[in-house]
Amino acid sequence: MSATTLTADSQEVHFYELDEHPHPEGHSTMLGFWIYLMSDCLIFAILFACYAVLGGNYAAGPGPKDLFDLKLIAVNTAMLLFSSITYGFAMLQMQMGKVRGTQIWLGVTGLFGLAFLGIELYEFHHLIEIGAGPQRSAFLSAFFTLVGTHGLHVTFGIIWLVTLIVQLGKHGLIPANQRRVACLSMFWHFLDVIWIGVFTFVYLMGMLR
């Protein structure tokens, strides 16, 4: 279907296409998204490298043992890992052609993501409140940058989730929406892998220093 306008001679003029451009089996979309994920890997690799260099510079201030609550961080990690499981259920529902089921499990995934963000924001607020903000030392600057960047990605992922739920309700499981759900699945699991690295490298190893 094309949007049209009429000239004085009543001739139909096509000036833009409303239909989606063809995506042969979605290969170009998936390839492009893999390339994006690789670029995101480079960003996090740089942030991990910066933390590795700066993570021991406390400027006579508090270190990981003084600041981190491993029990709280373990709960936070569980929230994100559970969200990966529920996203897997959403993918199964999509493969069975169940729009409502897909929406429900995407919604549950979003709730786990919100719980993760809530705990992370609580941790940041607590650290800043006790004077351990990002300006206190190089260690805290690197910590807030790495963990905050991951949290920002989760925030964008939740916005994407909400958008997909709305699109599924409006258009159903059309091929374009299936590709979008699959792309977000890769993004969401990617964030889980990055967080496991953060939990291990920043929190666990930090407590062992």
Automatic annotation (TrEMBL):
Ranges annotated as spanning the membrane: 33-54, 74-92, 104-122, 142-166, 187-206
Gene3D superfamilies on file: Cytochrome c oxidase, subunit III, four-helix bundle
Major subcellular site: membrane
PROSITE patterns: COX3 (PS50253)
Location(s) in or outside the cell: Cell membrane
Residues in Heme-copper oxidase subunit III family profile domain copies: 1-207
Its membrane topology: Multi-pass membrane protein
Keywords, sorted A to Z: Cell membrane, Electron transport, Membrane, Oxidoreductase, Transmembrane, Transmembrane helix, Transport
Signal sequence interval, chain numbering: none
Recorded GO CC terms: plasma membrane
A Gene Ontology BP annotation from the UniProt entry: aerobic electron transport chain
Gene Ontology molecular function terms on file: cytochrome bo3 ubiquinol oxidase activity; cytochrome-c oxidase activity
Entry keyword Plastid: no
Role according to the record: Cytochrome bo(3) ubiquinol terminal oxidase is the component of the aerobic respiratory chain of E.coli that predominates when cells are grown at high aeration. Has proton pump activity across the membrane in addition to electron transfer, pumping 2 protons/electron.
Name this polypeptide is given: Cytochrome bo(3) ubiquinol oxidase subunit 3
Organism: Sphingomonas koreensis
